[in-house]
Specification:
Elements (H helix, E strand, L loop, with lengths): L12 E3 L5 E3 L7 E6 L6 H12 L1 H6 L2 E7 L3 H11 L5 E3 L4 H5 L3 E6 L2 E6 L2 E5 L5 E5 L7 H12 L1
Parallel strand pairs: 3-4, 4-5
Antiparallel strand pairs: 1-2, 3-8, 6-7, 8-9
Length: 155
């Protein structure tokens, strides 16, 4: 099922890097930057997380909440959070329930090899829980700027 702009964001629950239960419902009434990324502590994923970290206070001041999701474990997320001092929740989706709901799991290619994995995708969710924008090609080094521009385009 394709997730379309204007549709209701699929509900989810998961554990973050601290073992806390997090659900989309926890953020009702807030603007949410829900970003899916392939793997903790890899160059692109680190650039993306650090860009969001470096602009976190500005995002919070604009009313955004940031949530990262990958299929890595809680333990892996904890190491990633600590290594890069990340201030937002990273949800462990080892059973792929959330990536499947958001249709971001699929075939990928890297260095001539084909494999299954998470497609880097950012969903902007409005205060009513609707998908405002889908960024299917996030700019890892400029994710915050891309998010703010996409949000402005839609308002």
């Amino acid at each position: 099922m394709e997730i379309k702009e204007g549709s209701k964001a699929p509900a989810f629950k998961g554990l973050d890097q601290n073992g806390n239960k997090i659900s989309l419902a926890d953020f009702k009434g807030k603007k949410v930057i829900l970003y899916f990324y392939p793997k903790d502590d890899t160059p692109g994923c680190t650039a993306q997380a650090c860009n969001l970290r470096d602009n976190y206070h500005d995002l919070i001041n604009e009313g955004f909440q940031v949530i990262g999701i990958s299929t890595d474990s809680v333990k892996s997320h904890k190491k990633f959070e600590e290594k890069f001092d990340l201030p937002f929740p990273l949800i462990a989706d080892e059973d792929r329930k959330i990536v499947d709901k958001y249709n971001v799991w699929g075939e990928k290619q890297f260095m001539g090899k084909t494999f299954m994995g998470t497609h880097r995708t950012t969903f902007l969710i409005d205060e009513q829980g609707k998908i405002k924008k889908v960024i299917s090609k996030p700019d890892t080094k400029n994710q915050t700027e891309q998010v703010l521009e996409a949000w402005e385009e839609e308002t």
